[in-house]
């Protein structure tokens, strides 16, 4: 069964009486443990798609079933609760809170979730160890390189053991060495069982994914299996 099932998902933005069809009739199935990369030129609808997958936005038409549950028509608090439990976000700009330590940044979403302090500590430290940042727990984000900050952001996304990791241009603010290292980390997490959906317009990184979905003008124009696992 699909972890993510989209059927006929369309998103129309209305600005000054001008309609923008950001997405037009998207069908998509992603199973548990898959690593899917979403590629396409700027403005083709990638961010809109990721926002819908992450319950940050809703389709104008079509249906979305996440982990067996139809998500349309849910109240905002219900959507927020599901988002907090099922989705881990990784952004281009890391989005760490500057006056919280690395540890506190990773712990924060667990606090929102109502997890008891002792459990939070174990989960946050485990996630930091997993991304190789356990030794930086007491640092502030500004004391870390961009690549290290993104590793911390990955730990924050992982700590709550979400059903899926959504990554939006995770290497967009990194030089190629740090970018490669973050992509390597995502590939390792995938090997360990994580389900990942990643938006990128850098085709170099598609080789880590099981499959690349190419989008153009809000439509899926091509699906490509990344068939040779030795290239990862
Ligand atoms: P990508 O992530 O591939 O660059 P986006 O999903 O950001 O593409 O945008 C797809 C289209 O929808 C673009 O034409 C963009 O201008 C438009 N769009 C995105 N968000 C909004 C919004 N909030 N209001 C109006 N138009 C939007
Ligand atoms: P949007 O989705 O809002 O259209 P994009 O994610 O396409 O924005 O790009 C935002 C900015 O980040 C652009 O200036 C783009 O050139 C830059 N950028 C995005 N991804 C990368 C990347 N992998 N490497 C370098 N620059 C990138």
UniProtKB/TrEMBL annotation:
Residue ranges of every copy of the ABC transporter domain listed in the record: 4-232
InterPro entries: AAA+_ATPase (IPR003593), ABC_transporter-like_ATP-bd (IPR003439), ABC_transporter-like_CS (IPR017871), ABC_transpr_LolD-like (IPR015854), MacB-like_ATP-bd (IPR017911), P-loop_NTPase (IPR027417)
A molecular function (GO) term: ATP hydrolysis activity
Pfam families (alphabetical): ABC_tran
Keywords from the named record: ATP-binding, Nucleotide-binding, Transport
Record Gene3D superfamilies: P-loop containing nucleotide triphosphate hydrolases
Single GO cellular component term: plasma membrane
TM segment ranges: none
Family classification: Belongs to the ABC transporter superfamily. Macrolide exporter (TC 3.A.1.122) family.
UniProt-recorded name of the protein: ABC transporter related
Source organism of this protein record: Opitutus terrae (strain DSM 11246 / JCM 15787 / PB90-1)
Lineage of source species: Bacteria, Pseudomonadati, Verrucomicrobiota, Opitutia, Opitutales
């Amino acid at each position: 069964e699909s972890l993510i099932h989209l059927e006929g998902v369309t998103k129309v933005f209305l600005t000054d009486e001008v309609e923008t069809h950001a997405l037009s009739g998207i069908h998509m199935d992603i199973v548990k443990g898959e690593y899917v990369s979403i590629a396409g030129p700027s403005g083709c609808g990638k961010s809109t798609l990721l926002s819908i997958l992450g319950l940050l936005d809703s389709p104008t038409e079509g249906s979305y079933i996440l982990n067996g549950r139809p998500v349309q028509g849910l109240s905002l608090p219900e959507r927020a609760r599901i988002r907090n439990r099922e989705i881990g976000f990784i952004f281009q700009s890391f989005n760490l809170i500057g006056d919280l330590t690395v540890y506190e940044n990773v712990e924060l979403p667990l606090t929102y979730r109502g997890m008891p302090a002792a459990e939070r500590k174990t989960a946050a430290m485990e996630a930091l160890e997993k991304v190789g940042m356990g030794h930086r727990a007491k640092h502030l984000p500004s004391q870390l390189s961009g690549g290290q900050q993104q590793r911390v952001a990955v730990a924050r996304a992982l700590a709550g053991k979400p059903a899926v990791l959504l990554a939006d241009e995770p290497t967009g603010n990194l030089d190629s060495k740090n970018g490669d290292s973050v992509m390597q980390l995502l590939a390792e997490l995938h090997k360990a069982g994580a389900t990942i959906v990643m938006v990128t317009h850098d085709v170099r990184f598609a080789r880590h994914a099981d499959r690349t979905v190419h989008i153009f003008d809000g439509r899926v124009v091509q699906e490509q299996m990344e068939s040779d696992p030795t290239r990862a």
